[in-house]
Amino acid sequence: MTGPLTSSFADDADRRLAETDRLLSTAYPGDDGSRQPVHTVYLPADRFTVDTVAAWSRAALRAADSAGGLARLAKLVGVPENLAEPTAAKLAREPIEDLRLDFEDGYGNRGDEAEDADAEAAAKTVCAAVQAGAAPPFIGIRFKCFEAATRRRGLRTLEIFLLTLADAGELPGGLVLTLPKVSTTGQVAVMVEACAAMEDVIGLRPGRLRFEVQMETAPMILGTDGTCPIPPMISRSSGRISGLHYGTYDYSDSLQIGAQHQSMEHPAADHAKAVMQVAAGGTGVRLSDGSTNILPVGDTAQRETAWTLHARLVRRSLERGFYQGWDLHPAQLPTRFLATYAFFRDGFTAAATRLRDYTQHADSAVLDEPATARALARFICRGLTSGALHAQEVERAAELSTPELFRIAYPAKPLS
Length: 416
Prior knowledge:
globular, 416 residues
């Protein structure tokens, strides 16, 4: 049976939509299913040592002890006390998932001689930590921004760091580079070219070097032409942009929001992050929320107030689809993992049941469709990679193997 829309019409449609097909396959590849860290820890670059991760582990556990233990802290911030044990294990085993050695705000301007030396020392220490098994899964640097006053310094630090890493052998698999205070797509274009130039010098495969863009200025949400520059920035980056990180305080300051009102949950912050989320949707570029500068230090009341706030903000970000955030102090780590584990465990049973019913075509009170099944599977996969869930319980509840689960969550993507 043939009709007016078959044969020549369909052939013509293929020709006319060839560019659309190419755009969808290249610009919107989707998430690849690889691990995304739940947080990034920022540390002045010259303070990093091979013992840093272990030291933060000890400090985080001491902070929890000062609250009367992790079970009491869990109760304080409103999460189940039975999460104390897995959180303690996480803090002992892998307290930092992603570490950024900071040569920007956390480091300051110390002169070229000092920063040259610190950039080289940082790279050597990263190599030593990786070789000793003391580095987190993801590690890298944040160099100075590409505005006129700091551009040459930022490029110089990046160059020294990468060349020193390369001299020691293969680059760390979890290497992450962070470009801060981006104001124009031109700055990102320069970073793309800088990565390509360093790959040529070091002898890396094209595309090996990728970077995060910190969303800290108003022009990156609404450009001078009245449009959002994020989509063209991503599409013209040759696949090198790995993430967009919201910068709470620089962005707030760019909008002249008073210091006392600067927050991850300010309406202006929510607007910026919503724009980022829509602009990055489907591109495979990941999102990270920012930080709170209210730290769990000082007297008991101050610490408990800060822990409660931090746990609530972590949960808030997760509920809004931001699965990563920034931590600035060891005492924030207990509530980072308590809140993250609680989020995934709270939603696990319902997600596994709905996914099982969907895959088995069972009668259910919820009529899920393929997109929802992917979302359910991705939620469980994120719970697995975060450590909140375990493969055996997932396979038992969802009646799916881990490979089957990942295939639903990330169609046509490799299992990582």
